[in-house]
Structure formats: C-alpha cells, structure tokens
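Something for you to look into today, if you have time. What I am after is a single protein written out in full by you. I want to see for myself how the chain folds. Could you add the entry underneath, on a fresh line?
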Amino acid sequence: MDQFKNGIMRLKYQLSLKAIDFSNLENLGNADADAIIIIGMGGSGQVGDIISGLKRELNIPVPILVWKNSGVPQTNYVKPFFIFISFSGNTKETLSGFNEVKNKAIVCSGGKLLDMANKKNVPIAHFKNPGIKPRQGGGFMFYGAMGIIKKIFPKTKIENIVLTENEKQGRLIAEKIKNEVVLIYGSQKNEYLCYNWKTRLNETPKNPAFSGTIPEICHNEIEIFENKNFLSKIKVIFIEDDSDKNIVKDTVKKIKLVFKNNKIRFISIKLKGKNQLTKAWNALFLADWVSYYLAKENKLDPARTNLIDELKSLK
C-alpha cells in the first residue's frame, strides 16, 4: 500500500479529541469571546469552513469567521478570539498575524508556530504528523480547534465519528469523471463541502474542478451549458442532502430535468450519516478516495504538488 493511500485510511484515527495533545489551556482564562476567527491557508483554512458550516450543530454560540490571508482581519467585534491553524506550523501567511493579537490559540504539528506559542504560553492543540500530507490532516486540525472552542464555550457539542467505508464508491466516481472538467453543486448550507471537493480534485489528481451553490447557479452559471463547445468536457456532481430545504430539493429536480433535456451529463452523491457532522466527514472521506483514484487514472502522483512547492521556494 502506498503512503498516500494509507494516509486516507488513517483519517478514522484523527476524528477524536484523544488524537490531540492540549497544553496551556489554563491560560484561556475567561475568554468571553464574542466571535471566533480562524486563521489558516489551504486545508488548514478549510477546517474553519467546516466549523463555520457546522456551527449550529456544534452549538457554538458566537459567529465564526475564516481568514485565508496574511495578517488578521479588522472587525467590529469587541473581544474576538483567534485560532491560528497550520498543519506544518510554518505557513508564512498564518505566522504573519500571530503577534498582532493577544486572545489566541494555535493548532499545528510543530514548526515555528509551535515555538512562538510555547515562548508566550499560548494555548496549544498539538498533534504528531504520522507521515501524511497537510490536506490529509483535516481531522487532527478540526478536533484541535474544537477542543479549544469547547474550553471557551463548554456547551459546545463534540462527538467522535465512525466513518462509512466508501473506497469502492470513490473509485467508481473517479472512473466516471476521468478527463472531465468537474462542476460541483450543492445547497448554500453545504457550500463548504462543495468547495472542499473542488480543492481536493485540484490538488490530488490535478483536475480542473469548480464549485457553486443552488439556487445561485440558476441565475448565472447555468447558461454556460448553452455553449455546446464545452459540453463534451464537463460533468456535474450534485451533492445532495436529505436535510436540505424542500425548495432546494425541488430546484435540484428542475435542474436535473433541464440537464437531461439538453444532454448535460451529471451524477448525484447523497450525503450519508446520522447528523450533519457525520455527513460532512463521510463526504470528505469520499472526496479523498475519488481524488486518489482519479490521480491513478491520470497516471499522476497524488502526493506531489510541484507548482505549489515552486511558488513557496521563490523569494
């Protein structure tokens, strides 16, 4: 078994607070935060998207903002609490804002961010990297951030997750979208999942993919399908959720009818799980398998990121 595939299979070991070592949490004191601002890039920033998307189910009582840039955002909140997330601990954009704020904590596997936090006794959620790529460490970073949030807001709900085995489904979907430009559509509620699928398809199999939300695409993006020059290169994935509002479900049915009438190709993926948290992680687990097997179909190394590495190397 190759290392990248093993990394996907190890996700199930990340989905618990037991996977995280917490320190300096006593220094949170009475944070009394009126907002949580999550700072991170790439997969680290997407952890913020997941927490924001699941805010109601997680019973987080304050707004969640996600900042994917250098520095920190300017807000009108009186006492925002900042969580800096970096898988490696060396993400330059994330590091750049660390000294700009006082109320903060970090989530990482090591690096400069851990050193900076230790020097200032900043609350830390630390995990050991078991030899996986940053995009494969979402579970560690999610539970690290959630452990900190629960310390601030004790009524926050956290539970361990048991994933549904979906490797076979992932392989079948990869075969269906090979050599296609993939458009991923879902409800506004699940926008973060659609975007996460898009980035996984971009980074692992190096595949063109884009995401949009329903019903917004019905007012603009749907018109691209009138251009017959592109239809043979496009396949749509619908992310469907039985908890979506009926008006969204009805709109999806109408879009599918239009697509069938105009010979626009699509497949549907129904979210599975007892609640939104489980549905989310099952969907992300499936996205990892699809991306892995699509990389194999494309005869590309799923682990390598040559252009990202080249950009990082430039001074």
